[in-house]
Amino acid sequence: MQGSKTPVPPGQGRLAHAPADHPPVGKPRVGVLLANLGTPDAYDYWSMRRYLSEFLSDKRVVDYPSWKWQPLLQLVILSKRPFTSGANYKLIWDEQRNESPLLTITKAQTAAIAAALAEKHGAEVMVDFCMRYGNPSTEARVKAMVAAGCEKILFFPLYPHYAGATSATANDQFFRALMQEKRQPAARTVAEYFNHPLYIDALAGSVEAAYAKLDHRPDVLVASYHGMPKRYLMEGDPYHCQCQKTSRLLRERLGWEAGSIDTSFQSVFGREEWLRPYTVQHVAALAKAGKKRIAVMAPAFSADCIETLEEINGEIREAFLHAGGEVFTYVPCLNDQPAHIAALVAVIEENLGGWVRRKG
């Protein structure tokens, strides 16, 4: 019918002087997009293969020449590893929700952060999350934010420490997603926050809470960080130094003496040398040296995942007990603990400077 107007979607409107057929324009908003590593959609062979292929094909993760790496990956590694990785995921999978713990926790973190920012900024700020590998993809979430009227997006990789294989590849994917947008929003990325006072406070609080539940104090606390090839350190990646500093700051915040927290690295892959000491070997050495009670935490992970729930609380625990250890305590990741959410919100607020106004 002549003169009729297309319905305007909620949250969108027409420009005052625009013609009737002008597309709806959203109310300007600021987006906060949280990002984590990722998770397979399921633990069956093909879901695991798709996920592992995307992950292990990332040049930031494995930087070998494609002509050398891809045949090995596609023909050898991915013919077997999806079965073993799938079996490990099955051990921790939430069958009721049909998702991995990482996805469940990231959803909870997002909801808590969104609620905290809504208290301060109302509907001006939109909070969502994405995964570097798997779903929900970075591209899909960026597209949704732009469609919702986000003219500015703060991209927040949930890694306390910077590494090329984590923070940098997440940022790479974010910028690739921006390249697909006709109306490209202004963008900022959040830097590493390994030494932020509230993050250190949250770590200390988690240790104190875990120790308060024990009958006997552990002989040593092992801070186990995800590993990476030693070559990356020599090429300028600051990850190793930042991990060491986190352990020191945590010890100082707890008021413990030197030597009470050990730093080690887990999840070794491939044949080249990685950052040492390797956690699985280190905890066994501690047991053989008479340290019969230890606690292990994973400060580099913002949420519990396969590397903590299965590797630390499974393989690494077994290595310690098999070597003669007696009591193994796993200190959970910060997840959606209030102190952690407060720290993340503080980091976000610091990075939103000049982009938002307080509600009221």
Nutshell version of this structure?
The chain has two domains: 29-192, 3-Layer(aba) Sandwich (Rossmann fold), CATH 3.40.50; 197-331, Rossmann fold (3-Layer(aba) Sandwich).
List the topology elements.
Blueprint: E1 12-13, E2 25-26, E3 29-39, H1 45-56, H2 66-92, H3 101-121, E4 125-134, H4 138-147, E5 150-157, H5 164-178, E6 186-189, H6 197-212, E7 220-226, H7 230-234, H8 239-254, E8 261-266, H9 279-288, E9 293-297, H10 306-322, E10 327-331, H11 338-351
Helix pairs in contact: 1-2, 3-11, 4-5, 6-8, 6-11, 9-10
Describe the structure.
- The chain is α/β, with parallel strands linked by helices and 360 residues long.
- It folds into 2 domains: 29-192, Rossmann fold (3-Layer(aba) Sandwich); 197-331, 3-Layer(aba) Sandwich (Rossmann fold), CATH 3.40.50.1400.
- The chain has 11 helices and 10 strands.
- The chain has helices at 45-56, 66-92, 101-121, 138-147, 164-178, 197-212, 230-234, 239-254, 279-288, 306-322, 338-351, and strands at 12-13, 25-26, 29-39, 125-134, 150-157, 186-189, 220-226, 261-266, 293-297, 327-331.
- The strands form 3 sheets. Strands 4-3-5-6 form a 4-stranded parallel sheet, with helices on both faces. A 4-stranded parallel sheet has the order 8-7-9-10, sandwiched between helices.
- The longest helix has 27 residues, at 66-92.
- The two termini are 43 Å apart.
